[in-house]
Amino acid sequence: MNVKKLGIGVLAVASAWAIPAYAAPGMTTPALLTAINARDLGFQFYIPNTSNPMGCSNPTTFRIAPSMSNYNAMVSTILTAFTAQKTISVYVYTCDTDGVSLIAAAQMQ
User: Fold this and answer.
1) pLDDT in tens, 24-74
2) Could you give all domains of the chain from N- to C-terminal order, each with its CATH number?
3) Which of 41, 47, 62, 67 has the fewest CB within 10 Å, making it most exposed?
4) Please, which pLDDT band fits residue 9 given cuts at 50, 70 and 90?
5) Cα–Cα distance, 27 to 71 (Å, whole number)
6) Quick one: CA dihedral 54, 59, 64, 65, positive or negative?
7) CA–CA separation, 54 vs 92, rounded Å?
């Protein structure tokens, strides 16, 4: 067996499974909300000028799942920030199947 070919093959497989460095749960950078939307999938809102630590495919749309134990507190925080035109940071823990970021915490600045 050719060791050089084996090394290239291992590198190719490892590269295919590599996870981008930004794909980890974390807080977004503070930014203003531009829109909110209450819908069947949960409370959804839009923050166009922020970072997305998970690298979700729809990086500026965020959602609170109705099953979250702190759902009401997060919705209240987001509605207050939107009404008062305050910046907000959210903790993104995963990407939903439609590429929207699911959050577990919201912090108004």
Assistant:
1) 999 999 999 999 999 888 999 999 999 999 999 999 999 999 999 999 999
2) 21-108 (2.40.50)
3) 67
4) very low
5) 17
6) negative
7) 7
